[in-house]
Amino acid sequence: MGRRTPRPEGPWDIVIVGGGNAALCAALTAAEAGRSVLILEAAPESYRGGNSRHTRNFRCMHRQPMSVLTETYGEEEYFDDLRVVTKGETDETLARLVIRETEECLPWMRRHGVHFQPSLSGTLSLSRTNAFFLGGGKALVNAYYNVARDLGVSVVYEARVDHVHIEGDRAIGVDVSVAGAAARRIAARAVVLASGGFQSDLDWLTRAWGPAAANFLIRGTPHNRGVVLKNMIDQGCPSVGDPTQCHCVAIDGRAPKFDGGICTRLDCVPFSIVVNRDGDRFYDEGEDTWPKRYAIWGRLVAAQPDQIGFSIIDSKSTDLFMPSVFPPIRADDIEELAEKLGLDPVRLGRTVAAFNAACQDGRFHPTERDGLTTIGLDPPKSNWARPIDTPPYFAYQLRPGVTFTYLGLKVDTTARVEGPHGRLANVWAAGEIMAGSILGRGYLAGFGMAIGTVFGRIAGREAAAHVA
Ligand SMILES: Cc1cc2nc3c(=O)[nH]c(=O)nc-3n(C[C@H](O)[C@H](O)[C@H](O)COP(=O)(O)OP(=O)(O)OC[C@H]3O[C@@H](n4cnc5c(N)ncnc54)[C@H](O)[C@@H]3O)c2cc1C
């Protein structure tokens, strides 16, 4: 490549904080422009790649069938989908920038070693809108690391950045602690921040949510603790978004505290009744199709006593959803099921009986709203309401599973970070750390990787141009 690799302490052309999708997209782009690039990744090598390694797909605009994507998915439809889920709480300029650039990203991803496959079957039907990664996010991350190595990008693992040195309107370097050793300074001509949200700092989550947060599970990496986000905010950089806003879904309560990934998600809710610790139902399980409702159930369970729920089905429904990695709790009658779940058998029996009595005859259709609703029940179940009466019975415990938080740094269309007194001259941000600029609330499947890929590439390009 003919490019000189700096000494470890720099100065590097570009230091990138984080080692997930956004960081890698920035690194590849900057290295291809001929810059010396250092990635500082907090995780050990075997766990590199942050939340990105858990992902499955990328939401992509396309004006004609492209790769594995069928039909078309235009800017207006994509933006409308985003507007609905965010209830308008989005920065339209940044959102449209992401949407438009996704079309160019997909071929770029392929050129950098990502292989795609058609959408997986299951409850989320996304073949037109989302391109799935063959081998999942782990394969994507590994492909990018391979290209990064070939381009001469240096990577240090177990490297936790604690401080970004801002002087005036510029960063002059970062403080990093490697494998727990004392922090040392690394000089940089430009810095890209791609170190994710703060969801794995449980104290911060508790300050935002109150004590309920102690019962939340974190679906992704334990390394996204918002250290750099907090450091920048403490230095006067404005933040965007609300610390309680995040992507939060109902996952299997037996999932590990961190890093359970996609296989702990539960998709049985629409075919079940969901009760709380007291054996009472608390929300319409059949309000709408699952792709439109799955992202609200984390918050619903978070609002229940002890932040726990139980999804109960009978043998008629076992094959209607993608199974979780954990087998369900099984029993031959409701009383036995209640005992196995630690619930009051009388209360649960009463709830199931009241639900069954409110069900009506009618056509059941699992993949569309079938209008098979309860009558005279509060809350109602508006679709897929069939009596729970065919043993054996099954239950899954539900807990809130946080995917990522939305509080972030403020950026402009060039990914440049807003400092205390206007834009910083040489600091860019990409991915979850700035997602709050676009996601005020709600979520659209495949949009996290869209934000990270688009803004990662922009950050890499702009940083490279800055140090030219
Ligand atoms: C289970 C799961 C499934 C998901 N599925 C999808 C999907 O299919 N499609 C989609 O679009 N989105 C999905 N998402 C969301 C998606 O993962 C994120 O939006 C995206 O990966 C964010 O990329 P990122 O590079 O900003 O963050 P990450 O990939 O999380 O990378 C952040 C990096 O920063 C490092 N880091 C953190 N702090 C420091 C520090 N102080 N110093 C140095 N390094 C640090 C971390 O180790 C990590 O490598 C999913 C998330 C989860 C948890």
Question: What does this entry look like structurally?
Answer:
This protein is α/β, with parallel strands linked by helices. The chain has 2 domains: 12-202 and 406-466, FAD/NAD(P)-binding domain; 250-401, Succinate dehydrogenase/fumarate reductase flavoprotein, catalytic domain (Flavocytochrome C3, Chain A, domain 1), CATH 3.90.700. The chain is 27% helix and 22% strand. The chain has helices at residues 21-32, 75-86, 92-111, 136-150, 202-209, 227-234, 290-293, 297-302, 334-341, 345-358, 447-466, and strands at residues 12-17, 37-40, 57-59, 116-117, 130-133, 154-156, 159-167, 170-178, 184-193, 217-218, 239-240, 246-252, 273-276, 309-314, 329-331, 393-405, 408-409, 416-419, 422-429. The strands form 4 sheets. Strands 1, 2, 6, 7, 8, 9, 18 and 19 form an 8-stranded mixed β-sheet that branches. Strand 18 (416-419) and strand 19 form a beta hairpin. Helix 2 (75-86) crosses helix 3 (92-111). The model has no long low-confidence stretch (mean pLDDT 95). Bound molecules: flavin-adenine dinucleotide (FAD). Flavin-adenine dinucleotide binds at residues 17-23, 40-43, 49-52, 54-58, 159-161, 194-196, 219-221, 223-224, 227-228, 261-262, 403-404, 431-432, 446-449, 452.
